[in-house]
């Protein structure tokens, strides 16, 4: 019965893994620096943010089909703030496999964004769009707490492109938004993401239980094997 239970659990985990897609980017947080005091500064940017305290965000991202005039997906910007300087992070975006989408992720410093005109233009376009409601805040605007004067801050740039074909013209012209989970995951010792700690512990415990079970079975069958050998 226990073997069947473990098999069922493994099947469930495998199904969950295959029913969702993940795109990620790994980066190292910069050292803390003084934030620009020009107006409008980043504390006036009304965009969603993730931080060491708010590590996940559930939201819907608008997508579009790419073509010659629009070679990239719909732009989305987020702020990564209150990071632990020199800490390694993994930024993941997860979505259902039933919504085929291509996500391109880029991480920029404040200087990168404000020094590149094309990045400023895409950021301004995003700021002019209505803000979606996020699951962690329950309101359309981003976190109202402004970053400190000295902080480790980065910008996350997401481009979302629909990645399928349909004979439905309306669907091809107006692809629906994609429900996603955006996760900011710090690395433990720079080796593996913090969210995998519970999984690692589970696998170790499962391995120990499997070894113990094999020892019990072996000791119970050993007398029978010796008897058959002697006969």
UniProtKB/TrEMBL annotation:
Q: Which InterPro entries match?
A: GPI_ManTrfase_II_coact_Pga1
State a GO cellular component annotated for this protein: mannosyltransferase complex
> Looking at the record's lineage, which domain of life comes first?
Eukaryota
Report any one BP term from Gene Ontology. Answer: GPI anchor biosynthetic process
Keyword Glycoprotein (UniProt): no
Fetch the Pfam families from UniProt. Answer: Pga1
Q: Which GO terms describe its molecular function?
A: mannosyltransferase activity
Keywords recorded for this protein, A-Z: Membrane, Signal, Transmembrane, Transmembrane helix
Transmembrane stretches, start-end: 200-218
Which residues constitute the signal peptide according to the record?
A: 1-22
Q: Which PANTHER family match?
A: GPI MANNOSYLTRANSFERASE 2 SUBUNIT PGA1
Protein name as it appears in the record: Uncharacterized protein
Q: Which organism is it from?
A: Peltaster fructicola
């Amino acid at each position: 019965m226990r073997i069947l239970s473990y098999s069922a659990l493994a099947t469930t985990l495998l199904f969950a893994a295959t029913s969702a897609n993940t795109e990620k980017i790994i980066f190292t947080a910069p050292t803390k620096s003084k934030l620009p005091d020009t107006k409008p500064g980043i504390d006036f940017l009304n965009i969603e943010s993730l931080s060491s305290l708010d590590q996940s965000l559930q939201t819907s991202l608008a997508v579009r089909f790419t073509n010659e005039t629009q070679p990239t997906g719909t732009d989305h910007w987020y702020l990564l703030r209150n990071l632990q300087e020199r800490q390694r992070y993994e930024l993941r975006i997860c979505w259902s496999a039933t919504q085929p989408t291509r996500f391109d992720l880029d991480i920029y410093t404040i200087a990168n964004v404000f020094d590149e005109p094309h990045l400023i233009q895409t950021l301004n376009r995003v700021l002019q769009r209505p803000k979606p409601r996020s699951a962690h805040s329950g309101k359309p605007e981003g976190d109202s707490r402004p970053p400190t004067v000295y902080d480790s801050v980065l910008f996350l740039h997401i481009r979302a492109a629909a990645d399928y074909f349909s004979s439905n013209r309306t669907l091809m012209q107006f692809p629906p938004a994609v429900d996603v989970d955006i996760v900011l995951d710090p690395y433990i010792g720079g080796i593996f993401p913090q969210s995998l700690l519970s999984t690692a512990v589970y696998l170790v415990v499962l391995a120990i239980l499997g070894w113990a079970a094999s020892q019990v079975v072996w000791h119970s069958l050993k007398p029978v094997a010796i008897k058959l050998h002697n006969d």
